[in-house]
């Protein structure tokens, strides 16, 4: 146990030093030498170098071989831009989502994609006593195959979607996979995904979902606007009645983000 604790503490310390290294470079007036970084971290140059190499591998650090100095990498900029996009989308979308919630009375949420996961960046709780509860920041692997997931996958190539689903469900039947791919394509064409059937949500089979894409100025899908509720209430008929309201809300948010 002592050995495991030692390894655990060492791992935490490495992460802390990596974060500190990024903070030092962010506060610096220019690129820094390894000796300077090691001094700021309070460790040896070899330890600081190992951390720097790891960060550089993830594009979070850049090394200039001519000056032998380090600076923040393009990966930091990408992360900052992504974070800014999420905050902007959430703040822009919230009033539209609140209006949609009043129309459909079910919980509405906004999800952005991170790799093979999705993150809830905004939410408006439903007005019913029994409703779906979500916390902003909730992260879910897209193996749930819900309507929101289908929207977020709609821009992907079919081969990429196939590989992802087969990785999640190696034993999936060919017919089920083909049906899923066809629905993702329909979602791309119609701008709407509706899953009222019980069990369609592989994680929460008693929850029905419907979703529409949020587009940016380039026409790319940047988020999924989702309406979710119990299968006994958010039925196919209820979804059909609310489909246009969902589409309209998604379109208004997209226009606010610069979509044509």
UniProtKB/TrEMBL annotation:
All copies of domain IclR-ED, residue ranges: 75-259
One Pfam family linked to the record: HTH_IclR
PANTHER family from the UniProt entry: HELIX-TURN-HELIX TRANSCRIPTIONAL REGULATOR, ICLR FAMILY, HTH-TYPE TRANSCRIPTIONAL REGULATOR RV1719
GO molecular function terms noted in the UniProt entry: DNA binding; DNA-binding transcription factor activity
Taxonomic placement: Bacteria, Bacillati, Actinomycetota, Actinomycetes, Mycobacteriales
Ranges in coiled-coil conformation: none
HTH iclR-type domain: residues covered: 12-74
Any Gene Ontology biological process: negative regulation of DNA-templated transcription
Protein name: IclR family transcriptional regulator
KW DNA-binding (keyword) present: yes
Keywords, comma-separated and alphabetical: DNA-binding, Transcription, Transcription regulation
InterPro entries: GAF-like_dom_sf (IPR029016), HTH_MetabolicPath_Reg (IPR050707), Tscrpt_reg_IclR_C (IPR014757), Tscrpt_reg_IclR_N (IPR005471), WH-like_DNA-bd_sf (IPR036388), WH_DNA-bd_sf (IPR036390)
Native species: Tsukamurella spumae
Keyword Lipid biosynthesis belongs to the record: no
